[in-house]
Amino acid sequence: MLAGGIGGARFLRGLKDALDNREAPTTTGTEITVIGNTGDDITLFGLRVCPDLDTVMYTLGGGINEEQGWGRADETFSVRTELAAYGMQPQWFGLGDRDMATHIVRAQMMAAGYPLSAITEALCDRWQPGVRLLPMSDDRVETHVLVNEGEGQRAIHFQEWWVRHRAAIDAESIVSVGAADAKPAPGVLEAIDTADFVVLPPSNPVVSVGSILGVPGIREAVAATTVVGVSPIIGGAPVRGMADACLKAIGVRTSAEAVAAHYGADLLDGWLVDEADAHTRVPGIEVRALPLYMSTPETTEAIAAAALDLAGELSGVDTGRSTR
Ligand code: GDP
Ligand code: CA
To answer: Of 19, 115, 220, 249, which sits most exposed with the smallest number of CB within 10 A?
Structure first.
């Protein structure tokens, strides 16, 4: 699976539940490899913060703030208050005390020369997410947004646009700085090549899945296997978040159909859309409609089960049947 933050992590929980409730012997011991987006990563106060990797790790490891969807449960913000008292910037990014421990470990390992993939593995030793979590690349790839507020064009970090400005300033374009020279992290291409199929969860198609596919070699590898995606757009709107602002910046309409066409029939084999989008037709892509709101563990599991069914059909791999 290629995953961003919240949408990816929630879907993964459903996928693990769906695999637990299947009868085919072939699905017991199934391994899930998650290739996480690192385009959102940012250095703050000397610490490297990887929001999407951490959201997946905390969600599957039981440490997530459930209401918020990101950050640690039962968080406190003493360090942030103290930093603000010193006038330290930025103050628009909330780093909690518990969360900060993760970033301190990461920063220390980075300073000691460890690549992000090894650091992620070490952090997962504590959280035991039950999946193999790989960053898309060990190289620094950062999403920047070109904005123009009248004083000429400037590039700001994706997090500044997203968190500070709530994507309310028009983005002229979105660039993945460093992508052209980046290499997939160790294990990424091997995992894709040996996978029965690849699932694209309802993650942001531009700044999450799009940045992963932008690492040279990954898109080609994914296109060579069976790919089933879950639409992050329902009835012409993103379910939560501001994915529409990202789609607008790259000139793609906010619809389940336009997102599938943007991924392309060379990449995508199957596409799950909400019942509100049952009319969706994309040449070369098999479309199925079902309720796509991940509102409860049960509905999320049903979406994942449908993805397994479709992936099984399209790839010829026996994905078993749901026992629910
Ligand atoms: P982020 O890193 O926190 O932005 O999370 P992702 O990259 O995983 O993308 C979140 C996207 O998932 C949002 O833009 C929504 O469009 C989509 N999304 C969130 N909740 C749901 C849901 O319940 N159902 C579906 N189909 N999509 C969702
Ligand atoms: Ca993200």
So the answer is: 220
Our answer on whether the CB atom of 7 is closer than 6 Å to any ligand 1 atom is yes
Question: What pLDDT, on the 0 to 100 scale, is given for residue 16?
Answer: 95
* Segment among 101-110, 191-200, 233-242, 304-313 with least mean pLDDT: 233-242
Residues 6+ away with beta carbon under 8 Å from 241: 6, 7, 204
DSSP H helical ranges for the chain:
6-20, 51-61, 78-85, 97-111, 116-127, 158-159, 188-194, 209-213, 218-223, 243-249, 256-263, 297-315
Residue 195 lies in a domain: yes
Residue 247 CA to ligand 2 center (angstroms) comes to 14
Give the pLDDT of residue 172.
Answer: 93
**What mean pLDDT is predicted for residues 72-92?**
96
Mean predicted confidence (pLDDT) in 156-185: 95
279 within some domain: yes
Domain count, the chain: 1
Q: What is the pLDDT of residue 4?
A: 97
Atom of ligand 1 nearest to the CA of 234: 26
Query: For residue 312, is it within any domain?
Result: yes
Mean pLDDT estimate for the chain: 96
100 inside domain: no
Read off the CATH number of the domain in which 239 is found. Answer: 3.40.50.10680
In short, whether 293's Cβ falls inside 6 Å of ligand 1 is: yes
Instruction: Give the integer Cα–Cα distance in Å for 84 and 105.
Output: 22
Q: By residue range, what is the domain housing residue 224?
A: 2-40+180-322
Determine the residue of 2, 67, 230, 239 to mutate for testing ligand 1's pocket, defined as the one with the most ligand atoms within 8 A of the Cβ atom: 239
